[in-house]
Design a protein that fits this description.
Distance between the termini of chain A: 37 Å
Number of domains of chain A: 2
Radius of gyration of chain B: 19 Å
CATH superfamily of the largest domain in chain A: Beta-grasp domain
Largest sheet of chain B: 5 strands, antiparallel
Oligomer: heterodimer
Helix content of chain B: 25-40%
Radius of gyration of chain A: 15 Å
Structural class of chain A: alpha+beta
Strand order of the largest sheet of chain B: 3-4-9-5-6
Bound molecules: flavin-adenine dinucleotide, FE2/S2 (inorganic) cluster
Largest sheet of chain A: 5 strands, mixed
Number of helices of chain B: 12
Number of strands of chain B: 13
Number of helices of chain A: 6
Number of strands of chain A: 5
Shape of chain A: globular
């Protein structure tokens, strides 16, 4: 079946099985390997992407549900000023160790700041609650989101 | 052949021709049928995608009901001013933002898990489901619609069109969830509880327990026995109230918890609710 959607700002058409996970379509058909597979069942957030600018787990998203929708991956987001602010904040807060969770964490961060540019600690923790990190212990990531929110005034 | 219909009529017409696996947000289906990484889900029927059908995406309010289209997502419900607080409190405890953005209330009901949190609260609110096929239309209480572990009265050619919640104010309405982790945890035990009091006496009483039986446990006949009592009477007889519910709370041991723990917690939640009145 032919499925059209917007991927990182460009209209794309994929001729494929609509039951395929968006995760696999992104990694295999578009070589967007910043999208990671951790658990494959919605628990870890490593596969997070922006679906109509809201964080969603691409391992649970069948291609059929993406028809005519807007998808942004870490690769597409990388070119923005918001990304620059988030990246620097993650570096400065020491929020990246092995990095496997990081693309997903960044997507969840953008999803939050887009709706709520000045979140409280509690709101940050809720926003990141679907993303697991085996390395940092989370506090540094929460710090990074706060830092991005403070420094990036006007960006969101 | 999978199908992505654009309208409700088209979807119902397709369902008349053969059996399909209906899929809305996919957050239950994609886990249930998942296969190896990088391979297609192992389905036994083709998919019928319903999440984008406009007639299944709406929230309306009348004097009688708050009506929610089956494919309304948790995110939309959270952002709507007409959704009762207890349902929003429940949704906040479901999964995480990424799943709440695509997961639907209709999917939670049709999936019929005994641990479905949305179902628990909707049953305590006496909600109804409206079920349609190309020829028929019927309305059923959610507690009757769900018939057992993961089974419902839905026929292969039917879809849930909407959920109707009686539009009334509840003085006391609380959702309690006990899970392994704050986010993304399936309930070990849940209780949705609703109570109205007028002139010191109970006028309405509903408890619905999640994850303590093959389906969400709702006991309207026992609930009715609380009607007419005073709040003080309830508080003085907590133990005997727990004892009336106890025989019907029959949890099992599974990977998430034990039967003994679940039962004790469920009974403690009743106490907690009564004490909060
Ligand atoms: C990590 C994770 C955490 C979760 N946490 C929770 C939780 O805390 N609490 C909870 O209750 N659930 C939880 N869930 C389960 C799930 O997210 C919910 O049950 C959700 O509401 C399912 O909706 P969906 O639209 O994604 O359903 P789908 O997967 O699309 O469908 C589920 C079932 O409903 C049927 N269906 C869907 N729409 C219709 C319709 N209109 N008519 C007829 N049949 C229909 C489908 O055929 C299927 O059988 C969790 C899931 C995951 C992956
Ligand atoms: S891989 Fe999607 S949530 Fe873990
Ligand atoms: S940095 Fe290693 S998982 Fe988060």
């Amino acid at each position: 079946m032919m499925i059209k959607f917007t991927l990182n700002g460009q209209l794309v058409e994929v001729s494929s099985d609509p039951s395929r996970r968006l995760l696999d379509v992104l990694r295999q058909d578009f070589s967007l390997i910043g999208v990671k597979e951790g658990c494959g069942e919605g628990e870890c957030g490593a596969c997070s992407i922006l679906f109509n600018h809201h964080v969603v787990n691409s391992c649970l998203l069948p291609l059929g549900n993406v028809m005519n929708q807007d998808i942004i991956t870490i690769e597409g987001f990388k070119t923005t000023a918001r990304y620059q602010a988030i990246e620097q904040a993650y570096i400065d807060a020491g929020a990246v160790q092995c990095g496997f969770c990081t693309p997903g964490m960044v997507m969840a961060t953008e999803s939050l700041l887009h709706l709520n540019p000045t979140p409280t600690d509690a709101e940050i923790r809720i926003a990141l609650s679907g993303n697991l990190c085996r390395c940092t212990g989370y506090n540094m990531i929460v710090e990074a989101v706060k830092l991005a929110s403070e420094r990036g005034k006007g960006l969101w | 052949m999978h199908h992505i219909p654009q309208t409700l009529d088209e979807a119902l017409e397709i369902l008349n021709n053969r059996h399909y696996q209906v899929i809305a947000g996919g957050t239950d289906i994609m886990v249930q049928y998942r296969s190896w990484s990088e391979t297609l889900p192992k389905l036994n029927k083709p998919l019928l995608f319903v999440s984008q059908i406009p007639e299944l995406n709406f929230i309306n309010e009348s004097d009688e009901f708050i009506e929610i289209g089956a494919c309304t997502t948790y995110e939309h419900l959270l952002n709507s001013p007409i959704i009762p607080k207890i349902l929003k409190d429940t949704i906040i405890d479901i999964a995480a933002p990424g799943i709440r953005y695509v997961g639907t209330i209709g999917g939670n009901i049709a999936n019929a898990s005994p641990a479905a949190d949305g179902v628990c609260t909707l049953i305590a609110l006496d909600a109804l489901v409206e079920i349609v096929s190309s020829e028929t239309f019927r309305i059923e209480k959610i507690c009757d619609f769900i018939t057992g572990v993961k089974t419902t009265s839905l026929k292969p050619n039917e879809l849930i069109r909407s959920i109707r919640i009686p539009n009334m104010f509840h003085e006391h309405a609380r959702f309690y969830k006990i899970g392994g982790r704050k986010a993304d945890a399936i309930s070990k035990v849940a209780l949705a509880s609703v109570c109205n009091v007028s002139e010191g006496r109970i006028t309405k009483w509903r408890l619905a327990f999640g994850a303590v039986g093959p389906k969400v446990v709702s006991l309207p006949l026992i609930d009715e026995k609380m009607v007419g009592k005073t709040v003080e009477e309830l508080k003085e007889t907590i133990e005997s109230i727990q004892a009336t519910y106890a025989p019907f709370i029959k949890p099992i041991d599974d990977q998430r918890s034990t039967a003994v723990y679940r039962k004790e917690v469920a009974l403690n939640l009743i106490k907690g609710f009564i004490e909060s009145l």
